Amino acid sequence: MGSTFKEQESGFTDENILISHDRLFKIDQLRTRNIGKYLPLPQLVAVGDQSSGKSSLLETVTGIPFPRGQELCTRYATQITHRRDNDSFIAVSIIPKPWASAEHKESVEAYSRQMNDTAQLQAEFPAILDEVNICMGIRTPRNPTGQYTFSEDVLKIEKCGPNEDYLTVIDVPGIFRTMTEGITTENDKAMVRNMVIEYIKDPRTIILAVLPANVDVATQEILALAEQYDKAGERTLGVLTKPDLLKERSAKASVCALVLGNRKPLNLGYYIVRNRGGDDDEDDSELSNREDLFRQHPWCNLPDERVGVGALRVRLRDLLGEITDQAFPIIRTELRDMLVESKAQLDALGASRKTSGEQRQYLAAIAAKFQELVRAALDADYSRSKAFKDGELRLITAIVSATECFDLTFKRLSSTYLFVKQEGLGEDDEALEGPASFTNVDSSAYPELGDLMVKDWSTKPPMNGIMGWLETIHRDSRGITLGNVSPAMLASAFRGQSIKWETITKQYLSLTILAVHKFIIKALYNVCRCPIVHQRIAGSLVSELISSYEKAMKQAMLLVEVETQRKPYTLNHYFNDNMQKTRALKMKNQLMPHVESIAMDHPLRENPEVCQYVRPEKILSVVENKGNAEYAREEIHDTLRAYYKVAAKRFVDYVYYLAVDHCLLSGPDSPLLLFSEKWVLGLDDRKLASIAGENQQITDRRAKLEKKVRDLKEAIEIL
Ligand code: GDP
Ligand code: MG
Per the database entry, which stretches of residues form a coiled coil (predicted)? Predict the structure, then answer.
């Protein structure tokens, strides 16, 4: 019973009463390895009604003088943190409320005081509290202009020293039920309640539910509140204070019934503690004297482990230990994840690179890996590397869909005028499905591509009225020809019809250049995870890359020029097939109205193949029926249509083969082949050092990461 503990200057014995030595040792070891900030350590919070003795209890338990007494009733949360440090001092500061205005935040954060020891703190406490009240804007007799009764700012007292034990203790304002006219409002009440809830819902918090023994426990709201946030009752301790104020025997018996678990039982039970009373003289209120009370009836009949601050401390020490232990496995998992991450970062930095030999080897290895990715990407063999999980590395797939889009856009939109449909010619409808044109592409992440990227990705649809247009061409460019369609006339019509080829081709090239460039940058990042080196390699490649993209664009523009500006010509039999088919179909259509059937009773009627005929003189009338101009116009149209089809197909194929495939993908000057081991071997030592050399930044980073990995490994060992 009666504890032998004597309050000391620090409030703690050398034995570190609240956290066991073994755990303290572990925590210390972790802190020296910089793992401290990842340790969510448990905290104690005293909650209860106003004047129930919360501040007094915390003082009794920890030995830190908390401001207590009626008039100093807590108007904000006070957090006392103990931290192990080589130097002994006490730092006082204010943590601003989360939603503080910038102005308020600045003013409270500016507040800071440093004390040498508890004695100095105790001596200066009243003055400090006055300053804090002014700072937070709390209305008190000494600060009548303050705007608040309560504040959500937190007064933080950090006690540092070589023997401190990382305990955090929080004293919150009491929950009050009756409002004092002119001082506390409904709002204040809700705010204090929320403040209390914020603390007790944290699973690291041990809730000391403070209940004055001289008040009926049934009136104490705090037990219900604690139960709401600690459902299993694993963290809530009932602490009965002020037993000395009880005079009636029945009242004492009722309190004993609580402690014995016979009334309103709590999972972790009730403790009974006597704090320093308001009228107690500092000198004759030594704890051992105060606790003499418990030798008297009826308290002497209670079990020792429930009576006095010594017993409470033993229980708290176990509980804090349990909560710390529960935290350790979680910390261990977090440390493991951090270790994996740090190792990856370290790997990304690669081996140390001081000599040019080391640098060349390092860079050549990156280039080799890069070329491996290039080969896999060109073969669309995406199973070869995990890197291809990133869709943008699937280069050939991107090129194929760009090319399909190019082909479709070409079939649907490339001609200036819509050709007249010829029934039975087929293929005219084939392009009606699929996207109408390229969709807008965002290349802003790659400003280096500059003018190579088109700005306008849209294409106008072909216009109607081709016959009218052809008539003008015919009228304006008639020469002395025997036939109706002169090569010059056809050339001029074709030029007019293919005006959009250049724009569409530029769009297609933009899209493929972007795909290739994205691939190169991303693949490079994949094989060289060090952002500094990645940046430097990309920087040294960029001008050569751009010039190879420009070559591809130039090549495509040459094809546009050749196709659209030269005399139309083809050896493709498909052109003649088309022409003849067109003529035959037209003839058939013109003859249709003149078809006659053989009389029903004619002997030939038995053979269904010859039951229809056209008289030869009718054929003549059909052919002669057309005026010269009309005939010529149709001739130009049909020739143009047959040729356009052949030329467009040829063009689309060649743009892909000669510009995209040859210049951008698999040709000997492909930008994909640029960053290779050969390129690395060709670098002179200075250039090499500027790319692969280590600056202080990288050396430092490696050293830091190496230490971090070592620390983490050791920390995991410790746990
Ligand atoms: P809080 O508002 O809950 O923080 O309560 P305080 O700790 O400020 O205590 C209110 C008053 O009750 C103070 O005057 C304390 O001295 C007094 N008090 C607290 N605990 C005890 C106790 O165990 N016995 C006696 N006699 N007085 C106590
Ligand atoms: Mg208090």
Answer: 688-715
Q: Which domains does the chain have, with CATH numbers?
A: 6-341+712-718 (3.40.50.300), 356-693 (no CATH)
Lowest mean pLDDT among 39-53, 448-462, 600-614: 600-614
Question: What is the 3-class SS of 44-105, one letter each residue?
Answer: EEEEEECCCCHHHHHHHHHCCCCCCCCCCCCCCEEEEEEEECCCCEEEEEEECCCCCCHHHH
Expressed in angstroms and rounded, the spacing between residue 54 Cα and the centre of ligand 2 is 5
Taking the C-alpha atoms of residue 444 and residue 448, their distance in angstroms, rounded to an integer, is 9
Q: Which ligand 1 atom lies nearest to the CA of residue 49?
A: 3
Alpha carbon nearest to ligand 1 atom 9, residue: 53
The CA–CA distances, whole Å, from 492 to 281, 414, 496, 510 equal 115, 16, 6, 29
CA atoms of 309 and 35, how far apart (whole Å): 33
Q: How far is the CA of 195 from the centre of ligand 2 (A)?
A: 14
- 312: CA distance to ligand 1 center in Å? 17
Residue among 109, 58, 112, 105 nearest 82 (CA): 58
Cα–Cα dist 44/22, whole Å: 20
Share of the chain above pLDDT 70, in %: 88
Separate counts of helices (H) and strands (E) for the chain: 21, 11
Q: Which of 47, 52, 56, 272 to mutate to test the pocket of ligand 1 (most atoms within 8 A of CB)?
A: 56
Phi, psi angles (nearest 5°) of residue 211? -130, 115
What CA–CA distance (Å, rounded) separates 715 from 719?
Answer: 6
Q: Of 502, 517, 496, 495, whose CA–CA distance to 553 is shortest?
A: 502
Long-range Cβ contacts of 678-687 (<8 Å, 24+ apart):
679/367, 680/360, 680/363, 680/364, 680/367, 681/360, 681/364, 683/360, 683/363, 685/356, 687/540
Q: What is the DSSP letter of 655?
A: I
262 CA to centre of ligand 2 in angstroms: 29
**Which helix (H) or strand (E) is 239 found in, with range?**
strand 236-241
User: Which ligand ends up closest to the CA of 155?
Assistant: 2
Atom of ligand 1 nearest to the CA of 46: 3
Q: What is the DSSP string of 331-399?
A: HHHHHHHHHHHHHHHHHHH-S---SHHHHHHHHHHHHHHHHHHHHHHHTT-GGG-GGGGSGGG-HHHHH
Q: Which two tokens stand for residue 271?
A: 């403790």
Q: How confident is the model at residue 20 (pLDDT cuts 50, 70, 90)?
A: low
Residues with CB under 5 A from ligand 2 (ion): 54-55, 74
What separation in Å is there between the alpha carbon of 293 and the centre of ligand 2?
Answer: 24
Please give the angle made by the CA atoms of 554, 557 and 560, to the nearest 5 degrees: 160
Encoded tokens for 684: 């002179």
Q: In terms of DSSP bridges, do strands 112-115 and 89-95 run parallel, antiparallel, or are they unpaired?
A: antiparallel
Question: How buried is residue 301: exposed, middle or buried, by Cβ count under 10 Å (0-12/13-18/19+)?
Answer: exposed
- Kindly give the number of the ligand 1 atom that is closest to the alpha carbon of 277: 27
What does residue 167 show for φ and ψ, rounded to 5 degrees? Answer: -95, 140
Torsion from C-alpha of 306, 311, 314, 320, nearest 10 degrees: 60
**In the 8-state DSSP scheme, what is residue 328?**
H
What is the model's pTM? 0.53
Question: Over the range 510-544, which residues count as b (16 or more CB within 10 Å of their CB) and which as e?
Answer: bbbbbbbbbbbbebbbbbbebeebbebbbeebbee
* Residues lining ligand 1, Cβ inside 6 A: 48, 50-56, 68-69, 73-74, 174, 241-242, 244-245, 274-278
Choose the weakest-confidence range: 69-83, 411-425, 570-584. 69-83
| Averaged pLDDT, 251-257 | 93
Angle at 497 between CA 493 and CA 501, to 5 degrees: 135
**How many A from CA of 526 to the centre of ligand 1?**
66
Neighbours of 86 (CB within 10 A): 7
Q: Which two tokens stand for residue 316?
A: 């708290």
